């Protein structure tokens, strides 16, 4: 005798396998982006226009003098903050989608993990284009000495991480107004403690943990390593250094140990040492930055599971 009604506890919880869910959700998300191109173009235009504006404000960054050092520091911190603040547009976008997500997952239409992965897969190419747009414009016009590929990778990683953070906040707050407030406030706090305004040694001990939690710390350090981690020789008037963010200059051990820098007042390693940057490779900073992005995505997934609960009605 054929069993027509299978017991409920033996039925599959979801109608489709995980891979198919990711494929279908990715296709739907891609269609939404195509139908509403302003989701992509708004940030693309902002980064392109601001890249041109920054290129017109910061000139002659190719020069090897003391004035250029502080101007490079100012340029790179603004570049990082521009990338982070430009991601705030994701707040209302997800809050609108959240109600659809809760309704669909309450009937086990798909898994929360499928939604998290599909949204990341679809937006990765757009993040890559946006990061390259800003990096190429500023690198070409300002004639930066940094490596363009690494410059692009740092900005690309920053967009991935900040998008994950904004999505996490959007999943926790009740409205997009609250979401904007939380994202702007926390990003400003990360900006303050990233090592530009206050070097880590100048931050009070009870606030120093913010320097390491700040997602802005790592792309800023990576950009400076990409720019100054070489044998560049800087000369000029010492008075040109005092008003800027570099502050008190500390000579690195590489400068004193090597005999080829005897005629150099400062080398790139001195700038990094004075800024409190001790990492030898930008990939450490990029790895930590992406690790924060992964953590934000995992927390985002946990929050979505809490909302949906995957209860079939």
UniProtKB/TrEMBL annotation:
Provide this UniProt record's keywords sorted from A to Z. Answer: Membrane, Transmembrane, Transmembrane helix, Transport
Task: Tell me what topology the record assigns in the membrane.
Answer: Multi-pass membrane protein
What Gene Ontology molecular function terms does this protein carry?
A: ABC-type transporter activity
Record-linked InterPro entries? ABC2_TM, ABCG_transporters
Q: Which residues cross the membrane?
A: 40-61, 73-95, 115-137, 149-173, 179-198, 282-304
Which positions fall inside the ABC-2 type transporter transmembrane domain? 21-228
Has UniProt tagged this entry with the keyword Secreted?
no
Q: Which Gene Ontology cellular-component terms appear in the entry?
A: membrane
Q: Where in the cell is it found?
A: Membrane
Q: What is this protein called?
A: ABC transporter G family member 1-like
């Amino acid at each position: 005798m054929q069993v027509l009604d299978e017991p409920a506890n033996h039925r599959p919880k979801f109608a489709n396998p995980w891979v198919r869910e990711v494929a279908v959700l990715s296709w739907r998300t891609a269609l939404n982006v195509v139908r509403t191109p302003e989701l992509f173009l708004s940030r693309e235009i902002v980064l392109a226009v601001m890249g041109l504006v920054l290129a017109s404000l910061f000139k002659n960054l190719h020069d090897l003098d003391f004035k250029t050092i502080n101007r490079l520091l100012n340029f790179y911190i603004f570049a990082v903050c521009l990338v982070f603040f430009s991601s705030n547009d994701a707040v209302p976008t997800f809050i609108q989608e959240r109600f659809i997500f809760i309704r669909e997952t309450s009937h086990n239409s798909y898994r929360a993990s499928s939604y998290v992965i599909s949204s990341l897969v679809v937006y990765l190419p757009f993040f890559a284009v946006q990061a390259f747009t800003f990096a190429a414009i500023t690198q070409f016009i300002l004639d930066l000495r940094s490596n363009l590929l690494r410059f692009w990778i740092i900005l690309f990683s920053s967009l991935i991480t900040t998008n994950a953070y904004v999505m996490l906040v959007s999943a926790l707050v009740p409205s997009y107004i609250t979401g904007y407030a939380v994202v702007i406030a926390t990003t400003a706090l990360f900006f303050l403690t990233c090592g530009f305004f206050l070097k880590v040694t100048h931050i009070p001990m009870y606030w120093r943990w913010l320097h390491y939690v700040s997602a802005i710390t790592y792309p800023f350090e990576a950009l400076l390593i990409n720019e100054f981690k070489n044998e560049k020789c800087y000369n000029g008037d010492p008075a040109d250094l005092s008003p800027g963010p570099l502050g008190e200059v500390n000579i690195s051990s590489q400068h004193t140990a090597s005999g080829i820098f005897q005629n150099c007042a400062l080398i790139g390693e001195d700038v990094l040492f004075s800024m409190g940057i001790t990492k030898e490779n930008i990939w450490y900073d990029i790895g930590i930055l992406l690790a924060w992005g992964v953590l934000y995505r995992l927390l985002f997934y946990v929050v979505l599971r809490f909302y949906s609960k995957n209860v079939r009605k």
